[in-house]
Amino acid sequence: MQGFVGKIRQTLAAGLLLLGAVGGVQAQDLFDPVLIVNDRAITRYELNQRVLFLQLLRQPGDLTKIAMDSLIDERLQLQVVTALGVKLTPEDVMRGMTDFAERANLTPEQFIEALGQGGVDPQAFRDFVEAGIAWRDLIRAKFGPLTQITDNEVDRAIAAGAAAGGPVRVQLSEIVLPTNAGVPGRDAMTLAQELSANIKTEAGFADAARRYSKSETGPRGGRLEWQPIDALPSNIGTRLRAMKVDTVSEPFSIPGAVVLYFLRDIGQAAGESSTSRTVDYAQFLVPEGSGTDADLARLRANTDTCDDLYAVARGLPAERLLRDTLPEAQVPRDVAQALAGLDANESSSTLRRGGWRVFLMLCSRTPTSEVPPSRDEVRNQLTNQRLAAQAELYMSELRAEAIIRTP
Q1: What is the chain's mean pLDDT, rounded?
Q2: pLDDT: is 202 or 335 the higher one?
Q3: Is residue 229 a contact partner of residue 328, using CB atoms and an 8 Å limit?
Q4: Which CATH class is domain 163-268?
Q5: CA angle 289, 290, 292 (to 5 degrees)
Q6: Among residues 100, 156, 271, 299, which one has the fewest Cβ atoms lying within 10 Å of its Cβ?
Q7: Buried b / exposed e across 294-312, counting CB within 10 Å, b at 16+?
Q8: CA distance 167 to 271
């Protein structure tokens, strides 16, 4: 979110166009419900506001769907927060708004002013922050007592990530099966489950990768180079740590695809210190269509570095090219998964965002710290991972039980 105000100026015109379209709707229609979630309405105004908010944050993908999904989640969160009596003070909300604004190097007042220039009501921002804080507090109250990390678990985590040799690395092969491009008669998950159950050797996995995988690694049998296990999404890294060498993983669902891994080797990187790293990466959105593969091939042939993408994106809407520099732990899971097998200036095109293919390019990875984490930091990290998993499961249950209908 660095340079947030500048990015807002780039997308302000698009935001005002959207407001212009909304302006054609009668005022009373703006507050009509577009969806009912357990008898709680989501209005057209709220949906429009959330779309504008996401647009100004340069969120890629189908913004209307993303906005609606988040509003549904917030309605369900509000339901249980109210039922369990979780209450926030104005100071709690202000701290949350301050924390969010600081990610863009702004004060809350500056952040709200910038959003207002793009047509976002300050209350929409406040509601977004308040829902997130209340949900976090509820999860900690509900599951915190059940999520106690033992000293042995901390010891194992430290040993796995910072033992004598250095950080844990894995040598993998992969099979990537897009969920919208399965084999006739079998969807991606069914095929992945069959392959996981039947493949017993590296040679068999390589044959299946060449036959089925849609990743750039497919033609070479899915082989990936050594990579830090922490570069993988935490749920995948945790499972891989428990695997034996020369075995096939269970299928992992990631946005737009199902992935299988063959663990060729695992160990510490001799002579390296355990470091956290910062990842600089770029995403260029290519429209889905009959010529998409050819467009991606041309893009790959004409871009040697991430900086080359700026020339490609010249004259296009700002949201077509997104570049971020983040700690590895903060990279979205699907992006982290795709980046894990890339070296600097290499690219991937397996990700999808709505009607777009993502040309993803790794610009660089750089160490950000050579100080190993303390025991308390490791314990907090393990606790947060477990709480995040509990929150995800709880939200799935709430969605499954909810009555969601159009008016």
Answers
A1: 80
A2: 202
A3: no
A4: alpha beta
A5: 65
A6: 271
A7: eebeebeeebeebeebeeb
A8: 10
Closest CA to 333 of 354, 348, 351, 347: 351
pTM of the model: 0.52
Q: How far apart are CA 357 and CA 351, in angstroms?
A: 6
Tokens of 405: 């209908």
Q: Does residue 127 register a pLDDT over 70?
A: yes
The residue ranges of every structural domain in the chain are 4-145, 163-268, 276-369
Question: CA–CA separation, 244 vs 206, rounded Å?
Answer: 18
Return the exposure string of 345-375: e unless at least 16 CB atoms fall within 10 Å of the residue's CB, then b. eebbbbbbbeebbbbbbbbebeeeeeeebee
Q: Quick: pLDDT tens for 11-65.
A: 433 443 344 444 444 545 778 899 999 989 999 999 999 998 888 777 767 888 9
Q: Using DSSP, state whether 176 is helix, strand or coil.
A: strand
Which CATH superfamily is 4-145 part of?
Porin chaperone SurA, peptide-binding domain (1.10.4030.10)
